[in-house]
Amino acid sequence: MTERTTFTGRGRRRSTRWQVRAVDRVAQALITFGGVGTIVAVSLVGLFLAWVVLPLFYAPEIDPDETLSPAWASQQAVRFEVDEHRVLGTVLSPRGVLRTFRIDTGATIHERELFPGEEPTAYAPVSDAPEVVFGFADGTVRQVRIEFRSRFPDVAGLPEAARALAPEAFMPLGDEILELTPQGQYRLHGVTIETREPFEIANGPVRGLAHTIGAGNPVLAALSADGAIRLAYFRPRIDPETGERRAMHDRTVDLPPPIDAASPPDHLLLDARGDSLFLLWENGRLDRYATGNPRGVALAETVSLVEDDSGARLTAARLLLGGRTLIVGDSRGRTSGWFLARPEAGDSPPAADGRKLVRAHDYPAGSAAVTSLGMSAARRMFAAGHADGTVSLFQATTEERLLTTTADEGKPVTSLAIAPEDDGLFALTGGGFWRASIDPRHPEATLAALFLPVWYEGDAAPSHVWQSTGGSQDFEPKFGLAPLVFGTLKATFYTLLFGAPLAFLAALHTSEFVHPRVRARIKPGIEVMASLPSVVLGFMAIVIAPFVGEWIPAILALLVTAPIVLMLAAHVWQVLPQRLTLRLEKWRLVFVLLALPIAAVAAWGPGPVARLAGIDPQTTPALRSVANWGLGPFIERTLFAGDVMQWLNGTIGNPLGGWLLLLLPVAALAVAWSSGMWVRPAIVRRGTRLSRAQFALLDVGRFFVTCGAALGLALAGAGILTLLGFDPRGPLVGTYQPMNALIVGFVMGFAIIPIIYTIADDALSAVPDHLRAASLGAGATPWQTAVRIVIPTAMSGLFSALMVGLGRAVGETMIVLMAGGNTPIMDLNPFNGFRPLSGNIAFELPEAVKDSTHYRVLFLAGLTLFAMTFVVNTVAEMVRIRFRRRVHNL
């Protein structure tokens, strides 16, 4: 390889060595592969999240089968049910005849008369229980329990014909059905019937009934022929004859007669807890009796279930899963949902028991009168049958009509049943038996239910709620993502509020004001903080939380005294002789750090500082009298009536102190801006005739006047808001919780400081030195150069640092799990907890059933977090590019 001689006399190669070129190409390939691979990996993550989430929004499916016409289908049904395997069905007639039939053919397997020789006069199915109560002419009531059973018989005891049974085929075997499952097992399907002893409740024929289990304390309501209504209460007791624990009669209560009722009620319904008895008439009138206390049963309220001017009649009424929501249908084809709620302040006054019946849901109307209702036993769904033969399936909470189909054209639907697994829908149509396979998908998770307020059972108004699991079968899942998004934004806001200013100011100080050798030591030390595990920071939050709760007034005071003391020290530094300040220049940071203990003493007083140092002020005469001389104790005594915790609870004090502290930062910024716009230029113009010391003293005076003006402005604003009746307790601050947003912001700030600091310091250091030299040469001070030249030039890098820190805060999991309180609420109160998207995923995903609604909604939460991060980063990149274009020509 030939060489040529340079002006220094050294040889220069005409081309690069092949080894260098090879390494360069390998490095280029690796970097390209890594970059493209990262983009592909992130895209695949987004696609996977979307793939898991997409089934949430699939439309429900229905596969109708042919309509059969068995002879028994024309009879009226008291109770119409099918088993979980969709093999058997039962129809109970008003006469007490129970018919068991095959779902696939409609053929009768077994027919049994429950009350031979007797004619029931009333009947009522029990909500959420496989029981029915019948009333008789002699005033007695009998309870019948009807349950499906499945068992695996001994193969040796089966008949020979069962050997030839094909998989998924059926064979009658007595009053049961034998099935060979796809797994090769024999399974018998049958029905068990248990009839309880009669109980006398009325003096004459029973005309209406309602019954509820009542959480182990059953309640029975009976309407007699003379219009009297009687309640029977039962309590768990030990049967003296058998020694078994069973519900035995406790007392009987007669209800006052309905007011202005021309006829007996058409429907009697008891809620699941036995707290309310509903009497319903065909004209839409509802009387609710508070029945929770047997000694205080009284009429609670009267409500109209239909619009008075519509001319509609009440045609169907049943209780939803859980027995607390009343679903009613009318002759106009409309259905609505009603439940009891405790009204909010300012609403119409509640009933005598503190609750009122509210019309929470209105569902899309059908094409004809509602003739029957069927309730799901697993979800909050119900089906409505209409007089023209159509059937609609609804989700009760979201008000979504999932599907509509025709069971039997032109024939009214007399009875409806939903399979226990919600995979089948069945109807009786006055002579026909209709069946269909359904797949409702995920009806609880609509876009409106996920991101908009939803009116949940028992609430006074629609709200955003996340509550994915509960302890009862009738639990209503609440998948509102708004509280989780709010928690993510809340955690990010307080984290950046604490960490970003410290990181930026530290980067500005080390890049512009300290010696390079000092910077070479400080920067690695701060960057080492990035190696702290999140779990360690979370544990640190748990450790400091009790301390913050104990000294909350002093800590709040420290947020005021620390900047004031530091700024005052800076002004005092200017007053010192210039010769002295030049000698002490390299120790300036030490003096700044010495100002922080002064700020702590000013905020906490000598007492707490002494206790931190291991000195008991009560045993030290010099500290005993001044132990509580601090801004924090003074603020607590003066502004918060001596106890800030009780003040936050709203039990003592007035709003003035809270408004003062909230408005103080805003007032300080406003006064500082005004001072910089008008006062500072006037002082500078006057300072041309003053010495250095005189100008410094004048500037110190301006500082004190500015502080006083800010305090006065905040006090004036606080006084005005207090006089107008506004109170920050509730909308802005509230009860103090040990694990709160303030703790998370403080601790998580340490997680983002190293990231923001490193990128910001590199951006500031990358500003060309000729810009600094030009500014200093023109007479600007180092601070003016940093603020007006360096920061605008490095703005793209500083913004990138902020966005990287934002991404770190948004995705943090362990710290918010350990210190965030894990409470999915939407509350601006910094002293309350929250639950972010990331923490919720980590907390609940391990327990979520695969492919369930809960499981997919958690993936939707991950997709939402992914989208939020993508949007923020995209906007940040656009802003960064704009900043770079502005400084490109510098």
Features:
four-stranded antiparallel beta sheet; 890 residues; 35 strands; seven-stranded antiparallel beta sheet; alpha+beta
Describe the structure.
The chain is α+β, with helices and mostly antiparallel strands. It is built from 21 helices and 35 strands. Strands 8, 9, 10, 11, 12, 13 and 14 form a 7-stranded antiparallel beta sheet that branches. Strands 3-33-32-31 form a 4-stranded antiparallel beta sheet, with no helix packed on it. A 4-stranded antiparallel beta sheet has the order 4-5-6-7, with no helix packed on it.
DSSP strand count: 35
Low-confidence stretches: none
Which strand-content bin applies to the residues?
15-25%
What Rg, in angstroms, do the CA atoms define?
Answer: 38 Å
The largest sheet is: 7 strands, antiparallel
Alpha carbon gap, first and last residue: 42 Å
By DSSP (H or I, 4+ residues per run), the number of helices equals 21
Shape: elongated
Helix content: 25-40%
Can I get a quick summary?
This protein is an alpha+beta fold and 890 residues long.
Q: What's the topology here?
A:
Blueprint: E1 3-5, E2 11-13, H1 18-53, E3 61-64, E4 79-82, E5 88-92, E6 97-102, E7 108-113, E8 122-125, E9 131-135, E10 140-151, E11 170-173, E12 176-180, E13 186-195, E14 199-200, E15 206-212, E16 219-224, E17 229-238, E18 245-254, E19 267-270, E20 276-280, E21 285-290, E22 298-304, E23 314-319, E24 325-330, E25 335-341, E26 356-362, E27 370-375, E28 381-386, E29 390-395, E30 400-406, E31 415-418, E32 424-428, E33 433-439, H2 447-451, E34 466-467, E35 478-479, H3 482-512, H4 516-528, H5 534-550, H6 552-575, H7 578-583, H8 588-604, H9 606-612, H10 621-624, H11 631-639, H12 644-649, H13 656-687, H14 692-723, H15 741-765, H16 769-777, H17 782-793, H18 795-811, H19 814-819, H20 837-844, H21 853-886
Antiparallel strand pairs: 1-2, 3-33, 4-5, 5-6, 6-7, 8-9, 9-10, 10-13, 10-14, 11-12, 12-13, 15-16, 16-17, 17-18, 19-20, 20-21, 21-22, 23-24, 24-25, 25-26, 27-28, 28-29, 29-30, 31-32, 32-33, 34-35
